[in-house]
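Bumping with the actual sequence this time:
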Amino acid sequence: MRRFLNFLVLPLAGFLAAEGSLGAGTTNAAPDFQQVYELLRANLVGVPDAELNSAAVEGLLKQLHGRATLVGGPMETTTSKSGPELSKSAVLESNVVYLRVAQVGNGLADQLAAAYYRLTATNQIAGVALDLRFANGNDYAAAVAAADLFVTKKMPLLKWDNEVEKSHPAPKLIPGPLAVLVNGETRGAAEALAAVLREADAGLIIGNPTAGLALTTRDFPLKNGERLRIATKPVKLGDGATITRVSPDIAVTVSLDDERAYLKNPYATLAQNDQAVAIGTNDFQTFVDHTSEADLVRQKLKDGEDQGAVAPAPARSQSRPKPVIEDPVLARALDLIKGLAIVRESRL
């Protein structure tokens, strides 16, 4: 643990703004954390021990984001969650099922299956886009269960805590083609799900490299009643290979800020100055003319009264342009799925 403490030097440099950042302009190794902490404690004016301790903990955990975090009191469980695992489901461009995952948890597999079969009941589907961007989770058994919806063969999928979880293909598989969308905030069990889907040849990965945080954690009680959750072991694929950063099969360069904007509205046009200009207010909602027939009749009568004559029949309104998905990762996924579907049909 002590070797991690040196990472705290950068956050503590905020206390030394008058002198500039610690180590600025040098290539020396970071100074010893304990020495820096004790010097600050003994000499820094106007900062009590409690405040210095709080800054040290906050800075340390910030530097170790994803590898160590504080969690609530002893009554909180490691499986607690703030919302559903599946946050969005829709049919895009009339024939691609879009499934956005918020976190990989115990209910994800059931939610994926229910959403897919609901959406395909009245639609002819070309394939599936599984969006794992910004998804997380620490339930690796749930990742295996979700993978079982797409993996067609029995094989070892994941290994953690000396246990190997094998695939058990679902009775009703979700057919491909499958595109899996990832980015630098795809972490934990979501990252493992992406890795096993590619390992099993179930889908292609599109986007940016993942976080590299597919790790199992252990909670350690603290004196104040909280717990320190530390990533203690890496998660491995069924063949024993450690899951590090999952590199995409098709790389699409886009910033995290832009991707956050696109998740709110994939039809948005982002200006060069990084200000998002939305096309519509709701994501996945196309242009809709809300003028009712009664409104048209009233307007016709009003126009006739104003002109002293019966108003001519209104011309048929021009159809609004079909909205275009501007999210580059999602757009690439849709193109890929549609292309693979055409190839598959041509071979039948």
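The tokens above came from a reply further down the thread. Confidence is low (pLDDT under 50) at residues 1-25, 272-281, 285-296.
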